[in-house]
């Protein structure tokens, strides 16, 4: 099916479901980072690149009725899902804004905090976007980011050349779209150059075994990612089936585990 505004993994129902699973796996790390940044009741917060809005819903619960959450994404389909969910849960403090973050400026804001996860790795002009985000924060406000810092750290034991081939294809496809999977290597330096105080830097990486809740996250990504790679013509359906079979074999291998792609958590305060 056509990809809405070339969103790298699509906006179809399977991707919405995968993003929901992903957020459930990463919610503990996200809420811990928000606490580190001091996000609290009554705040005005921005969920930048919100997708279907799973984090925005949690942020709205955090800030309460006296707060405000502005959820920004370029996908109208994602934003419609978020608006429906917010209405169903009685969260009028969520406002949505359709915006191409690579092309359009942010609205005038004096936000208390800005949150983003796996956004800067997909945009074509990450430094420009970071500058725009910095301008939307009030002095003393915090930016919280989760971004990949070493995508090739996604490995398995026993070693799987087929899985490593899949990871290489994913990296190449993102770069072909103008993104940079390991953008987390650049962001702390750019924030320092923009006058931010780096309050917290931490690598986030898991070793997960079959049956662990975290294991479901890479499994779901392989399913969606393979379909995307086939659509792009990077692999054929036969090779996709071989990669799927290799991952299924890994799941049944005694003692097997995966190392997840390394993420950096950044909490930075605007001076």
- Rounded to the nearest angstrom, the radius of gyration is 19 Å
Spatial separation of the terminal alpha carbons: 45 Å
Order of helices and strands: HEHEHEEHEEHHEEHHEE
Query: What is the β-strand count?
Result: 10
- Summarize the main sheet: 7 strands, mixed
Order of strands across the widest beta sheet?
3-2-1-4-5-10-7
Q: Tell me the helix content.
A: 40-55%
Short précis:
This protein is of the alpha/beta class and 271 residues long.
Structure description:
By secondary structure, the protein is of the alpha/beta class. It is built from eight helices and ten strands. The chain has helices spanning 13-37, 54-63, 76-88, 126-135, 161-176, 187-193, 216-232, 237-251, and strands at residues 44-48, 68-73, 94-98, 111-117, 137-150, 155-157, 196-204, 207-208, 257-259, 262-270. The longest helix has 25 residues, at 13-37. 39% of the residues are buried.
Summary keywords:
single chain; 271 residues; alpha/beta; seven-stranded mixed beta sheet; three-stranded antiparallel beta sheet; 10 strands; globular; disordered N terminus
């Amino acid at each position: 099916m056509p990809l809405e505004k070339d969103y790298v993994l699509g906006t179809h129902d399977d991707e919405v479901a995968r993003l929901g699973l992903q957020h459930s796996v990463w919610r503990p790390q996200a809420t811990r980072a928000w606490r580190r940044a001091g996000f609290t009741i009554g705040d005005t917060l921005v969920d930048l690149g919100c997708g279907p809005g799973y984090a925005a819903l949690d942020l709205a619960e955090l800030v309460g009725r006296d707060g405000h959450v502005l959820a920004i994404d370029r996908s109208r389909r994602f934003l419609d899902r978020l608006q429906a969910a917010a209405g169903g849960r009685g969260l009028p403090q969520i406002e949505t804004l359709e915006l191409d973050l690579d092309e359009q400026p942010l609205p005038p804001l004096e936000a208390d905090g800005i949150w983003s996860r796996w956004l800067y790795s997909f945009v074509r002009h990450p430094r420009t976007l970071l500058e725009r985000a910095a301008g939307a924060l009030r002095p003393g406000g915090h930016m919280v980011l989760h971004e990949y810092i070493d995508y090739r750290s996604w490995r398995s034991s026993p070693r799987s050349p087929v899985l490593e081939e899949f990871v290489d294809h994913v990296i190449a496809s993102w770069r072909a779209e103008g993104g940079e999977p390991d953008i987390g290597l650049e962001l702390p330096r750019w924030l320092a150059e923009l006058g931010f105080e780096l309050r917290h830097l931490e690598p986030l990486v898991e070793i997960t075994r079959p049956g662990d809740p975290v294991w479901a996250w890479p499994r779901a990504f392989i399913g969606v990612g393979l379909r995307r790679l086939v659509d792009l013509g990077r692999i054929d359906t036969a090779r996709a089936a071989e990669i799927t079979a290799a991952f299924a074999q890994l799941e049944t291998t005694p003692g097997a585990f995966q190392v997840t792609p390394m993420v950096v958590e950044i909490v930075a305060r605007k001076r």
